[in-house]
Amino acid sequence: MIKKIKNPTRAGTFSCLLVFLLLGSSCRQAPAVKKHTAAKTGAAEIRYAKGFGIDYYDGYKLLNIYSGFGPDADTAQYVLLPKGLKAPEGYAKAQLIEIPVKKLVAMSSTHVAQADFAGVADVITGLGSFKYITSPLVRKNIAAGKVKDVGVDGTMNDEMLISMKPGLVIVMGNPDAKFSKYATLTDAGIPVMLNAEWLETTPLGRAEWVKVMAALTNREKLVNTKFDAIAKEYQRLAKIGRSALAKPSVITGMPFKGVWNVPDGDSYMAQFFKDAGTTYRWMNVTGKGSLALNFETVAPEALKADFWLNAGYVDSKKDIRAIDARYADFKPFKNGNIFNNNKRVNDLGSNDYWESGAVSPQLILADLIKILHPELLPGHQLVYYKQLN
């Protein structure tokens, strides 16, 4: 019987839990197979993320993505196996990924941030788009011709991808997609892994998906240490923000085609607002996504709000007024309290808030506290946010 090294996740806490895999099989306990003698790299310790689990066995790791295509999707399973070792029996429907991954195709800038965080950005040989990447190392490799543009998810150049022979393609789970659309790649022996950090509802939960990258590249020890420091700092800041006596009111976003999307009360962004010490009109609305509202619904709140955050693709109050003159009547417009999360945008329009910010929630929270309660963090300089004048 395989000796289990460590089981820090929920995947191993149920002895008889049956879930249907994305690829058509059910989860099962690891069967008895011959032990391998692979070097142990430590274990990823999952504390905040809900969407994945990693179990460690002698010679291989078992990665479960619980809901890659949406909250109601089936579990997808991946066996992470060092090169040259025999695959364990009992996982015929799971995809096999050779580790450490040496050639990676990333379809999202968040995957780039995770690779950067783990110190393995050099393994990226393909991207879904060059436009949205800010990582200096990856941009350098793009300029040197070491990274190819393989097309965005859904219209990927399968022929190019197959010729590149990557060790793994990481894609974003999409509620409207099915795994069968990647059949050309998987049939050619190229593993395709779902990454669903976007389903996490807390900043630390999203950031913790970097531990998937750690497991793929045998960087668990480094990533655990770095992430623990981030989590500790985030919790310290959240204690400061939540204890603030004043709770300034905020509005967020900007209408698009007549729809003003605002975060639900149980969402990722609402958690930031809560931890930063704000009053948010829709904080008590149950839901983990967003509310689709109209101008007439949001305007009464905007007229009296203290701050306007994340105002979209604008760089000045002039830009905002040009979109709709009525925005000039909002209290934060009049008081100069509009702060946008686009301070770190490069010449191509790539916004690092969506890249490195995905693995640096403590910096985003520090920015928000500095904006809303400047007296609480007097020494902090804004990283991702800037004031619009």
Automatic annotation (TrEMBL):
Residues 103-376 form the Fe/B12 periplasmic-binding domain. Pfam families: Peripla_BP_2. GO terms for biological process: cellular response to iron ion. The keyword Methyltransferase does not apply. Residues 1-30 form the signal peptide. Keywords: Signal. PANTHER family: MOLYBDATE-BINDING PROTEIN MOLA, VITAMIN B12-BINDING PROTEIN. This is Iron complex transport system substrate-binding protein. It comes from Pedobacter hartonius. The lineage of its organism: Bacteria, Pseudomonadati, Bacteroidota, Sphingobacteriia, Sphingobacteriales.
